[in-house]
Design brief:
This protein is mostly helical and 301 residues long. The chain has 12 helices and 6 strands. The chain has a two-stranded antiparallel sheet. A two-stranded antiparallel sheet has the order 2-3. 26% of the residues are buried.
C-alpha cells in the first residue's frame, strides 16, 4: 500500500469501507445502496448527492473486486503521470458524468415506455405502483470512473504494451481502450438485460475524452505542445525574447548589453539541472517536483 499514490490509495480505501458498511447496515435492515445509489431522476428516492455517492457503492464482492483491481492497475500509473489534483478532478468528473449519461438513458427509456401515463406496472406477474417501480432503477459502482481512467491511460501511453487475459500477446494501450469501448458500445446497443450500466461506462469515457482534449486545447494556446503526456511541456516565448535572440545572433550582444552565453556551458548547466531533478524524483517521487522543475524536465529545447 505504501507504493500506491495517495489519491488512488484513498479511493480504494473509501470503496472498501463503503462496501463493508453496506453489509453491516443490511443486518439492521438499512440498505445503503438504496440510500446512496443513483436513483432515476423522476423517482421519489432520487437525491442530487447520489451523483457522487453512487460511485462508492457496489452490488456485490465481484463488482467491487474488478473495479478496484482496474483502479489499482491503471490509477497508479495515471496519477503518477498527471499528479494528484488533476487525477482526482478527472476521476470524479468521469464518475459524475457517467451518472448523468445513465440518467439520460433512463429518461429515454421512461419516455419510450410511456410510464408517465400509468399508475402501476406489471413485473413478473406482480402489479406494483409506478413510483415503486421507478425507485428500482438504481445505479451503483465505480465503473464509470474506472472507464474514464482506462481512457486516460490509453491516451497518455498509447504505445505502452500490456497483457490482457486471455490474449497470448501484449496489446498497445490505444487498442486496449478501443476494444473496451467497442465492447461497451455493442453491449449498450444489444437487447440483453444483464443489469450492467453500459451507457454509464461509455459516458465515463466520453467525459474523460472531452476533459483531455480540453486540456490539450489549453496547452496549444499556452505551451508549445509536443505530444500528450499529461504535463505542461514548454511555455511559449514572448515576442521581446525572440527579438533579443535575433540581435544576439547577429550583433554579438543582446539588447541588455550582455554577451551571449557559451552554448557548451549552457548545455552543461542544463544537463546538471536535469540530473538534479531526476535525483529528486528518485528520492522523493515525481509529486515532489515544483511546476518550474516539471517544465525544465520536459523542456525540448
Amino acid at each position: 500500500m505504501r507504493q500506491i499514490p495517495p489519491i488512488t490509495k484513498n479511493l480504494l480505501i473509501i470503496n472498501m469501507l463503503a462496501f463493508l458498511a453496506h453489509y453491516v447496515m443490511l443486518s439492521r435492515d438499512i440498505d445503503l445502496n438504496s440510500v446512496f445509489g443513483l436513483h432515476f431522476v423522476m423517482a421519489e428516492d432520487f437525491a442530487l448527492y447520489q451523483l457522487v455517492t453512487y460511485m462508492f457503492m457496489h452490488a456485490n464482492a465481484a463488482h467491487l473486486f474488478f473495479n478496484m483491481f482496474a483502479l489499482w492497475m491503471f490509477g497508479c500509473t495515471v496519477e503518477n503521470a498527471w499528479g494528484q489534483r488533476r487525477f482526482l478532478f478527472y476521476t470524479l468528473a468521469c464518475g459524475i458524468g457517467a451518472g448523468l449519461f445513465q440518467e439520460c438513458a433512463q429518461f429515454i427509456s421512461y419516455a419510450v415506455q410511456g410510464l408517465a401515463a400509468y399508475d402501476s406496472v406489471s413485473i413478473g406477474g406482480m402489479i406494483i405502483p409506478t413510483s415503486e417501480y421507478l425507485n428500482l432503477w438504481n445505479t451503483v459502482g465505480f465503473s464509470g470512473a474506472v472507464y474514464g481512467i482506462l481512457l486516460g491511460f490509453g491516451m497518455t501511453y498509447p504505445e505502452e504494451r500490456i497483457f490482457i487475459f486471455p490474449l497470448p500477446v501484449p496489446i498497445k494501450g490505444k487498442w486496449f481502450v478501443c476494444i473496451y469501448a467497442a465492447i461497451e458500445l455493442f453491449s449498450a446497443l444489444g437487447t440483453s438485460s444483464d443489469n450492467v450500466a453500459h451507457i454509464a461506462h461509455l459516458g465515463g469515457m466520453a467525459i474523460g475524452y472531452a476533459i483531455i482534449h480540453y486540456w490539450k486545447y489549453q496547452y496549444r494556446h499556452r505551451y508549445q505542445f509536443q505530444g500528450w503526456d499529461g504535463y505542461e511541456i514548454k511555455e511559449r516565448r514572448s515576442f521581446m525574447e525572440k527579438v533579443k535572440d535575433f540581435f544576439s545572433k547577429f550583433g554579438g550582444k543582446d539588447s541588455g548589453g550582455k554577451a551571449p552565453e557559451d552554448e557548451n556551458e549552457k548545455e552543461r548547466r542544463r544537463q546538471a539541472e536535469i540530473d538534479r531533478i531526476l535525483d529528486k524524483i528518485k528520492r522523493s517521487g515525481y509529486d515532489s517536483l515544483t511546476m518550474e522543475e516539471r517544465k525544465k524536465l520536459f523542456d525540448r529545447r
